[in-house]
Specification:
By secondary structure, the chain is α+β, with helices and mostly antiparallel strands. The protein has one domain. The protein has one helix and eight strands. The strands form three sheets. Strands 2-6-5-4 form a four-stranded antiparallel sheet, covered by helices on one side. A two-stranded antiparallel sheet has the order 1-7. Strands 3-8 form a two-stranded antiparallel ribbon. The longest helix is centred in the C-terminal third of the chain and has 15 residues. The termini are far apart. The model has no long low-confidence stretch (mean pLDDT about 95).
Length: about 100
């Protein structure tokens, strides 16, 4: 098996995404997803959700790779990490 070379798929080793969501007046947030922080030798990952006012939500995601090449022997570990991130990013903000 061949190693996974990060640079074959991405052109940057760090990404920051910030999204601001404005809800209409009268809409109430009833459930916010859990924040997630992962720090290991493969990557640092942070996903946070914050209600900054009654109708404003800030979502922030930061991803930083710590290695440019991952050996085939660590594919299972990389796959589990990717699955954990996908599950976190598929959470829903619930409001009424």
């Amino acid at each position: 098996k061949w190693p996974f070379t990060y640079w074959n798929y991405e052109s940057a080793d760090e990404y920051v995404t910030e999204v601001s969501i404005s809800l209409p007046e009268g809409v109430e947030i009833t459930e916010m997803p859990a924040n997630l922080t992962i720090q290991n030798d493969l990557m640092d990952y942070q996903l946070s959700f914050e209600a900054v006012s009654g109708n404003q939500i800030e979502v922030r995601r930061k991803v930083r790779t710590n290695r440019s090449t991952i050996p085939a022997s660590e594919y299972d570990r990389l796959k589990a990490l990717a699955q954990q991130i996908l599950e976190a990013e598929e959470q829903h903000i619930v409001f009424r």
